[in-house]
Design goal:
- The protein is an alpha+beta fold and 132 residues long.
- 18% of the residues lie in helices and 36% in strands.
- A hairpin with a 2-residue loop joins strand 5 (100-106) and strand 6.
- It is rod-shaped and about 75 Å long.
- The N and C termini lie far apart (70 Å).
């Protein structure tokens, strides 16, 4: 491979930036020079996840019959689940490419709202929701 001068490389880079295209002839020279820039990072969270957890009262006891809400922040749809006798909840087929809010309520008590982020790569998101 023929080595190019710094001035020649600067001219090539300027031409590429001006046109937005990389001519095939220049491709190998730019790769060797390390001048090609990687595309911006994209979220790799494609598919579905499971959101599971427990609901506890202020004393730390498991809460049976609490309603847990999962809100898709893009579509604004809300799913709900009532905890079982062991205070557990489970949402399946939760889109990993969207942000969600998660909270629990029972009677006059409500937990803090937690975010299930699209940037979280876990296929199984597990948490505890504490009623106040």
């Amino acid at each position: 491979m023929k080595l190019r001068s710094k001035k020649a490389m600067t001219s090539m880079v300027a031409a590429i930036l001006a046109t937005g295209a990389v001519p095939p002839v220049l491709m190998s020279g730019l790769l060797v020079a390390g001048l090609l820039i990687a595309p911006p990072a994209q979220a790799q969270n494609i598919g579905q996840r499971v959101v599971i957890g427990i609901v506890t009262d202020p004393s730390g006891n498991l809460v049976n019959g609490a309603t847990v809400f999962l809100k898709d922040l893009k579509s604004k749809t809300i799913r709900s689940y009532n905890t079982d006798a062991t205070g557990k909840f489970r949402f399946t087929q939760v889109n990993m490419g969207e942000d969600h809010e998660l909270w629990a309520e029972k009677d006059t008590h409500k937990s803090a709202v937690k975010t299930v982020s699209e940037w979280d790569a876990r296929k199984e998101f597990e948490t505890e929701l504490k009623l106040k």
